[in-house]
What does this fold into?
Amino acid sequence: MRRRRQLVLVSTLLACLAAGGAAGAPREAVQDGVVRSGATPLPGMQVTLLEAGTAHPRVLARACTGADGRFRLDYRPPADRGAVLYLTADGGAGLRFAATLGDGSDVVVNERTTVAAAYAFAQFTRDSEVAGPSPGLPNAAAISHNLADVRTGGIAPLLAAPPNGSQTSTLAAFNTLADLLATCARGHDCDALLRLAQPPGQARPADSFQAVADIARTPGHQVAALFALARTEPVYRPALGAAPDAWTLALRYDGNGHEVNGPGNIAFDAAGNAWVSNNYPFASNPLRPVCGGRTALALSPTGSDLPGAPYPGGGLYGAGFGIAVDRAGRSWVSNFGFQGRGCPVDASRHDRSVSEFAADGRALSPATGWRFGGISQPQGTVADRSGNIWIANCGNRSVTRIPDGHPAAARHLALGGTGLVKPFDIAIDPWGRAWVTGNGSDNVVELAPDGRPLRTVTPPGLHRPLGIASDSEGNLWVADDQVLPVPCEGGTTADLAAALGKPPVGGRRPGVVMIRPDGTTEPAPFTNGGLVLPWGVAVDGDDHVWVANFGGQRLAELCGARVASCPPGYRTGQPISPAATGYGSDGLVRNTGVQIDPSGNVWLTNNWRTVPIQTNPGGHELVVFVGLAAPVRTPLAGPPQRP
It folds into this structure.
């Protein structure tokens, strides 16, 4: 096998020399670098510099690595300064490394930079070509630098340090994936990797870069066999000691390190920045009583604060699950009045408003928030395509509709006649209708675009519903929690905490309910081991359904109604994530919100700690599964659309 590898390297070197250097371009910029496997330089590799396009990449320069693995590329920079540039390094026999360019410094191309690029670009890589729209593609390029440092070929600072580093298994999983590539680079045939990485029903990858991108998109496939292969060439440490549930990479973001406490939900703006509701002010000591959070979090796609963030004012206090960004770029954060036990503030003075912020973080609402339209303990908050804002009032069995984002014109939609109790979340379908979950009434109410009640749906088996989301065909997907009572209308967070240890009534299992556009349902909820106290629901650009769990440290992915986008043979409601475990991560705690960004990353909120001491129960991170879902156009206004 090694003899064959040597022959392939010789032929690759000859082809590389014949190809020449800078593709005819006059020298205006230079990119130097080295290709290595671990610390070993790789001579005779054909290095190509490419500009990722919207449909296909464009070659800017080519060069060969010398005996020391080094290369130099002379090229003409693209006119677009924001263009995404990346390198590939080919050694024949299926070996291809890659790296996303950074600040123009010398680059190390190795197994780690390849895994980083393949996962970040997973939703934009087909046939080993990287292409896609903005902002998803450039954001993905930036996120790759959260995994690998292309200046050194080592671990990126964000992955190396808390709240990542040794605090989760992601670093070890990343290194184990790099070891998979080392089996190609160090004298072994790549055939085993390419064979095992082939997604069900799809073409076999032609090279190792595409193979890792395929693993990123189908992380539950051939897990044990890939782990066994990685162990044959242990180069990078620390590595996993046993096969994971799936080959996911989950990063934790904590902003500036002292701002996130009880993040409730996420809404993305047009640039893919994450706006996050925050239950409490930051305090690391769970025994220290905290009051309601008075800032809105706003993070870039790479997890750093936006300029001036976190943003104060506008009447913010103890925001819960309710946050939305409308198509004008304004953010709406509903003030539920969350606070820890022992806080001396009267929460009822602050739980009747919504706060509004401009795209630059300026508060547009007054110091008391907008208090029109009968808002009471608001939770789910969404924007529709017409610019209307819808708010579920958990405290008074109603919905507030703010037409065209004008708070003074807000309407109070009393829904007592529909049987709705404890309205919790809202989803907008393709026809502009609003669907509202009733956590205290085990039903879902459909409202016309103008707010008129149309019907009440009571699906078989539904109990304690929480989050809801629409797919592109108008099917509604509801988190059937079975256990958790929302702490409104007289209920408390102590009641919620007490319910965590209780089994579902009658031996039922938590799951997900699908409601068709005509209000009909399946005979029973969809259940599997990935659904443990399901809370938030999101639908991606392929209409796959994603579910956050308030227990079990796992994320679930289900095949949606559009089964053609699922693996061959899958049916609606069947788990795509491992049926017994979901996508597990020790970076998760108790999660509420889940959303998909324009790069295909799945974001979750670590809302409560695993052991939620009620003086200060909040979790302190957002968790981002890199490259896992089909991208979604943002801001989300109704059902998902591809960018």
